[in-house]
Amino acid sequence: FVTEAMLDFNSRTAPELVWSENVAHGKIYGENSKEKEERAKRVSRYINYQLSEAMPNWRDEQDKLLMILPGPGTCYKKTYYNADKDEVASDLYLADEIKFDMDCKNFHDAPDKFIDRKYTRNEVIGFIRGEQQWNLVESELEENKEDFEYVEAYTWLSLDDDELKAPYTAIICKDSQKIVALYPYYDEDTIKRNDDDEVVSIDTLDCFTQYRFLPDPDGGPMGLGWGILFGPMFDSINTNVRQLIDSGTLANTAANSGLIAMSTTNSRGNSVQAGPIEVQLGQLTPVPVRGNGGLAQDVVQFPFAGPNQTLFQLMEYLVQNARSMTNAAINVEANAGEAASLYLARLQQGLKVPNSITMRVYSAAKKELKKIGILDHKHFDDAKYNKVLDEQSQFSMEKDFDPADCDTVLVSDPSQGSDIERVQRAQAVLDKAETQPQQVINYRLAVLEWLKAMKTPNIEELAPEPDPNAQDPQQQMMFAQMQMEAELKKKDQELRESGQKLQEKKMVAEMAKTMADLGLKADEQEAKIAKLYAETGKTLVEGGMATGSNALNVAQQVEDRFISNDRQGGGQQPQQGQQPQ
Fold it and tell me: What is the chain's Cα-based Rg?
């Protein structure tokens, strides 16, 4: 059961904390600039090369840590500079391999830490002859002994007249109880001085990183794992399992287990057995009795009802409760037709417990990576650094890894949860980007995040950076749509104006026609008037009322008087049968 929970936790964390192509990257603080971006890329390239190639055991030991951690709940990593190999190292230690005062509030504040070490004869000779300069004589090493035990003590000592103690690392031989090597566990960066240049305090180099699975509810410095937290529950489960197995065994052997009467003909003394009777499963134990009887009456079988159903249900209850706490078999399925955002919310709710544990482990891994970055700054090697970068320009490893404004952090974001959560989150954003009514979400960025969540290889080749002089396809589409709409509006306006002009022309034409019709009518009326004038003049001349020269004037005078009388209402209409005068 514990192994299942350990495998589950390892499968959640190892892909990104161990086996990812890029585990860490450089983070440069301060105002962003092109120079800082290039510096961060250089730091990222080297730190990932270092974890995978220069520190060959780092991935294997990190994978081992993530497998072991859920059991005891505590593991340690010791990060230091290995002078013999001229490389940074980070070694794994289990919960019982580092000893310190358990009354301390936390592991970091423990003043003394001790590690039992075992070295071979060759390793000890190498320490004597190498840069470690162990204070030992090779001839004094015990003959015919290949393994030697030492204690690596991280403690505080006062080696001068100043009563202020300083941290040192002492290598103590267990056989002779003598210190064979002593190294300062501090440097100038960890010493604080006052204005008078007096040492105020000295801090350690802090080479240890403690990984904790669950914090101790009692406030202790160690972590808790499933192997410790579920100890009483596992005892109960194991007891029930054993009782159920024993009950089943007894039920299976009850048919041929019991007592059988053995008659005796000796009439003197007590013929009945007294005291305890030793029985054994799978056989009938003979018991001497007085008298004779039938075989059916002489056999007594052990009564066993078989496994108890209540015990089985209790065991199932305990197992399910333990499983629900470890989330070792959690499986949140999406419903048919369910929105990606709703499924994501249900999934996050179901994975809160494992995600909180994962974030705690991520925090410890970040501290370890930060120690590696600081050691790279202090023990820089520009030749190796530029060889790994393989660029035309030469760069300073010391400046690039300066901890004042540079930090090495994890590539993966623990707040984003598991792989399935990241995929669902990216899918929800992509769906929204595809269906958004307005261009609010960057569609290309949403696609790239979705590809990253799917762990798609060669994303840069699959979705290359767009030409900076070219517009985004969606922006081009929107711009083309806006131009089309503008053209349509322009055409519509032109059509409206053309229609108005046509309407005006039509009205003008109708007015012209009307006026022409009126002109024709006026001409016809004038012609009639002229004809009347001529007829009147002829009548006046023939009646002797006027001569040919003044006939038109007389006719006009008559017309004027008629019009004047008509306007004054004095005009008389001719009676029926009379001719107008």
Answer: 54
